[in-house]
Amino acid sequence: MNSTAVCEDGKVRCQWCTATPEYIAYHDKEWGYPVDDDIRLFEKITLESFQSGLSWRTILAKRENFRAVFAGFDYNKVAAFGENDIMRLLADSGIVRHRKKIEAAINNAQQAKLIVKEYGSLAAYFWRFEPNQTTLATPQSISVSDVSKALSKDLKKKGWKFVGPTTVYAFMQAMGLINDHAEYCAYRDEVQKAREKFNKPKTIAI
Q1: Which of 99, 111, 119, 190 could form a disulfide with 125 if both were Cys (CB 3.0 to 4.6 A apart)?
Q2: Helix (H, G, I), strand (E, B) or coil at 5
């Protein structure tokens, strides 16, 4: 199967982003570019957790609503959510109303604070799992990897929930830990250049 497609503007893009117009901007401006902002990292892994069993289109359409009700994905604030917040979120049709996923997001925010305490930032922790680029599979040929399994296992060991290896792999793709744009995608080289300029975050002694 061809992993690319020629879009209406004449650009060659990853095939998956042609499924709906909303995907184009996400693919062109976000997907695969390296991220070192802790709020964005927490947002993405939380949204990937909510996506479990659903399509990314569903989550992307609700992303602004998620941001509004989850305090902009400030994990320090989300970590303090209680039962009243859970009931508030369960009553909000603008998000995915799934109690276990909501509870997992709050739990994971609490665990995120512990990771920051240990490593200095979420970015420093997650980028420890950047795979060796020379050993990667062909772009988009897999949905899970040895590294995503290792990261998933470590997160679960630290108490995180709804972070299976497939969820974690999608997170790694989106946040730029790997460049999984298809070989002939017009944005693959652009993402690669961004990765080469990226200063990989390091653990900060605190």
Answers
A1: 119
A2: strand
Residue with tokens 């993405």: 44
Q: Which helix (H) or strand (E) holds 12?
A: strand 12-14
Four-residue CA torsion sign, 162, 164, 166, 169 = positive
Domains of the chain: 4-197 (1.10.340.30)
pTM above 0.70, yes or no: yes
Residues marked as catalytic: 26, 48, 56
Q: What DSSP letter does each residue of 136-147 carry, written as one string?
A: PPSTTS-S--HH
CA–CA separation, 63 vs 44, rounded Å? 10
Q: Block means of pLDDT (10 residues each) for the chain, length 206 residues?
A: 83 94 95 98 98 93 97 98 98 97 98 96 96 74 90 98 96 95 95 95 71
Which residues share a beta bridge with 5? Answer: 13
